[in-house]
Structures are given as C-alpha cells and as structure tokens.
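This entry is listed below:
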Amino acid sequence: MVRVGIIMGSQSDWPTMKEASVVLDELGVSWQANIVSAHRTPDRLWDYGKTAVDRGLQVIIAGAGGAAHLPGMMASKTRIPVIGVPVLTKALSGVDSLYSIVQMPKGYPVATMAIGAAGAANAGLMATAILALQDPALAARLDAWRAALSESIPQEPRDE
C-alpha cells in the first residue's frame, strides 16, 4: 500500500520533489508521485484529495512554485496531513512560493518546509516521522538514519 503521496503542480517541479522520494526510498517508505495542478487540473486535484483516505494515503507532500496554491487546496480537500514544499522560482527565488504556502487561513494547516531541494528532502523526513509514530520498525530506521547523519559530520574541519 502506498503511504505517501508526492504531488506537484508541473513536470518542472519534479527535480525538486524527487528529493522527497529519495529520502522515502532510503527509509523504506512507499510513495507515489503525480502531477496535480491546482490551476490547470482542478478536477484532478479535487479527486486526489477526496479519495486520498480511501486509497490508504497517510501523508501528502505537495510541492508548487509561484502562486503555489496546490498544498493549501489539497489541505482543504482531505484530513490527511499535508506537507508543503515551496519550489524555487526564477522571478522571486521561491519566496513567492513560500509565502503562498505558509499563509494558510485558520482551519487548513499545511506544514511548510524550506524552499527547494532541502525542503523536499525534509518533507520526506517529516512524512517519515509522522508515520513512525505508529510504526516501531520505521521509527528504528529513522533513528538509525539520523544517527548515521550525525556520525557523518567530522569534528574538525579539513582542507579539501
């Protein structure tokens, strides 16, 4: 069963959103990616959100750039936690995306990550942490992943 849905507004968002899938793969979390544009495919968005629970999704990671309505609109259509990833834009370096995602009205929360690839990777980690609350084996894998990250950081700098 697919546990995490990764959605994005367009194909051009995939290089950023793929970072979430890499983390989910490393931690053994099943995911599926789809293009679901809030503006160009609104019926697809409605259907995705309305059927998410019945399809077994437990977390949705939604990435969008510019107006970035996708995460918020998805949050309005499902009770499943939505994690928003602002995608870097040429015009305003993703700040427009960040503001669009983080400024949700009361009642429709979106957990908002940082702009770009680091935000997408952190969205994968956040989704894993949410799932790990009810999955001890996943919690152990996440703990091990975090420990390995800490171990990979040297104590002293060196010339490269």
Notes: The helical segments are 14-26, 42-51, 70-77, 95-102, 117-132, 136-151. The longest strand covers residues 59-64. The first helix runs from residue 14 to 26. Residues 76 and 107 are 8 Å apart (CA to CA).
